[in-house]
Specification:
It contains 9 helices and 6 strands. α3 packs across α5, α7 packs across α9 and α8 crosses α9. One of its GO terms (biological process) is DNA recombination.
Length: about 220
C-alpha cells in the first residue's frame, strides 16, 4: 500500500490534486478542509494516503494526519458510507471533530456533512463509538509497517518550505491515556476528553476538565 507521498503540487481540481513525484503524477482525492490547507501550485506538499482498490479502478485518498486517515478507513467500513461521504464528513468536521462526535455519540454533527443522512449518521456513531479511544491516542508521525513511502528526492522548492502533515494536539491522546491508567473505561474517558478538549489545550488542563466531567453527579 502507498502510505505517504511527497512531491510538488502540480494542479488542483474540485475534489482532487495532482502531485508530481520524480516526474510521475499521482492523482489524490482529498476533502475540502485538506484542500484549503494545501500550499500553492508548484510548491512542495506531503500527504498520508490510502489506496482504494476496485475491479476497474485504483484511487488514492490523501490526508494531513494519520488520525484523519484512520477515521477515513473506519468510516468506509460503515454500511452506506463510501469514499465520497467519508471525505465529506472529514471535510465538515476535521479529524478532531469526528473524534469528538463519535466519542460523544453526536450523530447530529455527522449528519451535517453533505450526503450523509440521519440514519447513516446514527449507524456510524453507534458502530464506531468503541473505536474512538484507539484513534484518539494515535500518534501523528508513524506509518504502518506495510505502507510504502514515496518521496521526491529533487524537490522544486527548498526543504525548509516543505509542509509536513499536520499533527493533532498531543494533549488529547496523553489525557486519554492518563485517564485509562487511572482506571476509567476507555469509552467514558474518550467521551470526557472529547468534551474537555479546546484548541491548544495543555494536557493537564484537559485531564482536570475531564475528571470533573467523570466525577459522580449528585
Amino acid at each position: 500500500m502507498i502510505g505517504r507521498i511527497a512531491g510538488r503540487l502540480d494542479y488542483r481540481a474540485a475534489d482532487h490534486v495532482l502531485i508530481d513525484v520524480r516526474g510521475v503524477g499521482y492523482l489524490v482525492f482529498i476533502s475540502d478542509r485538506t484542500m484549503a490547507n494545501l500550499p500553492g501550485n508548484g510548491e512542495a506538499v506531503a500527504l498520508y494516503t490510502d489506496l482504494l482498490v476496485r475491479e476497474d479502478n485504483l484511487q488514492l485518498f490523501g490526508f494531513t494526519s494519520l488520525v484523519e486517515k484512520e477515521w477515513h478507513r473506519l468510516l468506509m467500513g460503515v454500511q452506506g458510507i463510501g469514499a465520497k461521504a467519508s471525505l465529506a464528513i472529514l471535510g465538515a468536521l476535521g479529524p478532531e471533530g469526528v473524534s469528538k462526535a463519535i466519542a460523544l455519540g453526536d450523530w447530529h454533527a455527522l449528519a451535517k456533512a453533505k450526503g450523509v443522512g440521519p440514519k447513516i449518521a446514527q449507524r456510524a456513531a453507534i458502530e464506531l463509538k468503541n473505536k474512538a479511544p484507539a484513534v484518539m491516542v494515535m500518534g501523528g508521525d508513524a506509518l504502518d509497517d506495510d505502507d510504502i513511502v514515496i518521496e521526491d528526492d529533487a524537490p522544486a522548492v527548498p526543504v525548509k518550505a516543505r509542509k509536513a502533515p499536520a499533527k493533532a494536539n498531543p494533549a488529547q491522546g496523553e489525557a486519554l491515556s492518563a485517564l485509562v491508567n487511572l482506571g476509567y473505561a476507555p469509552g467514558d474517558a474518550a467521551a470526557a476528553v472529547a468534551e474537555a478538549m479546546t484548541p491548544g489545550a495543555a494536557t493537564g488542563d484537559v485531564i482536570r476538565a475531564a475528571l470533573k466531567l467523570l466525577a459522580p453527579k449528585g
